[in-house]
Every structure is written in C-alpha cells, then in structure tokens.
C-alpha cells in the first residue's frame, strides 16, 4: 500500500479529535468512527497517530480496524456501492446482481475502481427486505434490482 502523507492540518485535526475524547484508550472505537468520517478511511498513518495519542500499540488499533467490518483501510469511491446479501436479498438473486457489478466495474468486493469513482462492498442486511434485492449507492436505496439494471444505474451516476 502506498504511503500517504497527511497535511499538518489533518494531523492536528486528528490530534484534536483524540483530545476531545480525553486521549482515552477506551474511546478507541468512537475515535476511529470519527476519524473515518473525516478521512473516508483509516490508512496506516491515521492509525499510528491515534495509537500514539492514546498511548497504545499500533497493533491494537489495527486489530480493531480489521476486526470490525465497518472500518476500512482503503479509500471508498465517489459512489460507494453496497449490495445487500441478507437472506431475503440473497434468495431473490443478490449474488447475480453483485456479480454483474463486479463484471461491469472490473473490481471485486472491497476494491475501488482505478478512477476512484466506484467502490464495491456487500452488506449483511439493509432492513429493506420487502424491496429485495437491495443495493445502496451512497445513501440512496435501489430496490428489486436485477442484473440488467446495473449498467443503467451506473449510467445515471456518471
């Protein structure tokens, strides 16, 4: 993974974030959530700064980041696409929809297109089972999606 260099402003913002939580190791998950909201993801440099501020090993921060599926160490695309793979969606063909997104975008789950426009992930349940299969793109919910809808949806986003 290529090394990013955070600007001094971003480093200071991260330090202030940790200070807002009293630099308490018990606030690690809350700090990581806020940091991911700020940066869009949690690269190694961000994890190292948080560890230093909280006085804990980087390995502990990394362990939390990799344990919880909410956290990501890779930047998300401008249009993050999440395909629900919960039971209702799966039974109604979500896997074929996911396969079509992979084919059209040329990426796998957890990856971002080289132009940074799209990233692809799968979720366990969106809670919109009546609309299955469901795809989330950013905050927008697309329901009753079939593989044939994928290219049309992507064209709308361009």
UniProtKB/TrEMBL annotation:
Signal peptide per UniProt: none
Positions bound to [2Fe-2S] cluster: 84, 89, 125, 129
Pfam families xrefs: 2Fe-2S_thioredx (PF01257)
Gene Ontology molecular functions: 2 iron, 2 sulfur cluster binding; metal ion binding; oxidoreductase activity
Keywords for the protein's UniProt record, in alphabetical order: 2Fe-2S, Iron, Iron-sulfur, Metal-binding
InterPro entries linked to this entry: NADP_DH_HndA-like, NuoE-like, NuoE_dom, NuoE_N, Thioredoxin-like_sf
The UniProt record lists the keyword Ribonucleoprotein: no
Cofactor note text: Binds 1 [2Fe-2S] cluster.
PANTHER family: NADH-QUINONE OXIDOREDUCTASE, E SUBUNIT, POTENTIAL NAD-REDUCING HYDROGENASE SUBUNIT
UniProt record similarity statement: Belongs to the complex I 24 kDa subunit family.
Protein name: NADH-quinone oxidoreductase subunit E
Organism: Odoribacter laneus YIT 12061
């Amino acid at each position: 993974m290529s090394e990013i260099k955070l600007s001094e402003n971003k480093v200071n913002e991260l330090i202030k974030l940790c200070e807002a939580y009293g630099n308490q190791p018990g606030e690690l998950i809350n700090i990581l959530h806020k940091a991911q909201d700020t940066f869009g993801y949690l690269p190694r440099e961000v994890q190292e700064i948080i560890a230093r501020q909280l006085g804990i090993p980087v390995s502990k921060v990394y362990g939390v980041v990799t344990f919880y599926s909410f956290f990501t160490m890779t930047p998300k695309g401008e249009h993050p696409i999440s395909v629900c793979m919960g039971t209702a969606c799966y039974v109604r063909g979500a896997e074929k929809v996911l396969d079509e997104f992979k084919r059209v975008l040329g990426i796998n789950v957890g990856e971002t297109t080289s132009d940074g426009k799209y990233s692809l992930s799968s979720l366990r349940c969106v809670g919109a089972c009546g609309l299955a299969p469901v795809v989330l793109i950013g905050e927008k919910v697309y329901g009753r999606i079939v593989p044939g809808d994928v290219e049309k949806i992507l064209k709308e986003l361009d």
